[in-house]
Amino acid sequence: MVLDNFTLDGKVALVTGCNTGLGQAMAVALAEAGCDIVGLNFSEPTETREQIQALGRGFENVHADLKKTDAIPAVIEAAVSAFGKLDILVNNAGTIRRTDAIDFSEQDWDDVLNVNLRTVFFLCQAAAQQFQRQNRGGKIINIASMLSFQGGIRVPAYTASKSAIVGLTKALANEWAKAGVNVNAIAPGYMATSNTQALRDDKERSAEILGRIPAGRWGMPEDLKGPVVFLASGAADYVNGYTVAVDGGWLAR
Ligand code: NAD
């Protein structure tokens, strides 16, 4: 039956930045669908751990600053030693710096590109190497943005990184589809998380944004639960290199 194809019973998912926001909702969704979860976090994911353990699933965490790649071997090792394998990678952690392009610093550029793109690539590579060792394929889901498709304002590094994520997702899908590895992305619209607090606090920008969302509301972290479970499941076995917008219709305008 088709719904059996959506279950993730016995799977192991690695979710970066799952202490809060979209990453937390996606980690909980994957656990609800049957996964044990490995987190890769800068901040202690206490609440996420409690929610996942309350579902009867396992949760392991590795501490990391994802501006650097040095924690990658340890997190793959943590998944394998705690749960015996890795099936799913969700590259959720991301950062944003808002400054006029004319004044944008090299430090901000490097920090954003390192977290949002460089480390994402090397996590994809490490997960794919692990999938290869297991010889059973796997699922990679990268988190893109509306700024994968549009230019944005005062966020040049973020736009560059999230635009690159769509290209990287296609490039990796092309190389790894044959091995049963599905690489796709989700592009969330304007979601109510700490990432958009500054935007939501700016009354004028906030009203402008809300005014062009056909669904008439900001997205909630829970809006990503169905899409991430779908892309992580056997139901998406023939979906490769695609970026799914979950945006209340923003891009349709
Ligand atoms: P958030 O600020 O609530 O969460 C960001 C997560 O990334 C946190 O867990 C944070 O600790 C982690 N992170 C940031 N820098 C890190 C670093 N150096 N090392 C380790 N972890 C780090 O924001 P969110 O809205 O939940 O964002 C999650 C993802 O969704 C990000 O990739 C973001 O760009 C993307 N996104 C968000 C929106 C939105 O409207 N909120 C829209 C599109 C895309």
Oligomer: single chain
Classify the helix fraction into a percent range: 40-55%
Average per-residue pLDDT, rounded, comes to 97
Look at the structure and name the CATH superfamily: NAD(P)-binding Rossmann-like Domain
Count of discrete domains: 1
CATH top level label: Alpha Beta
Q: What string, H for helix and E for strand, traces the elements in order?
A: EHEHEHEHEHEHHHE
According to DSSP, the number of beta strands is: 7
Give the radius of gyration. Answer: 17 Å
For the report, how would you describe the main beta sheet? 7 strands, parallel
- CATH-derived architecture: 3-Layer(aba) Sandwich
**Bulk shape:** globular
Sum up the structure in keywords.
alpha/beta; Rossmann fold; seven-stranded parallel sheet; 7 strands; 42% helix; globular; binds nicotinamide-adenine-dinucleotide
Structure description:
There is one protein chain. The chain is an alpha/beta fold. The chain is built from 8 helices and 7 strands, in the order E-H-E-H-E-H-E-H-E-H-E-H-H-H-E. The protein has a 7-stranded parallel sheet, sandwiched between helices. Helix 1 crosses helix 8. The longest helix is centred in the middle third of the chain and has 29 residues. The structure holds nicotinamide-adenine-dinucleotide (NAD). The site of nicotinamide-adenine-dinucleotide has 26 residues, from helix 1.
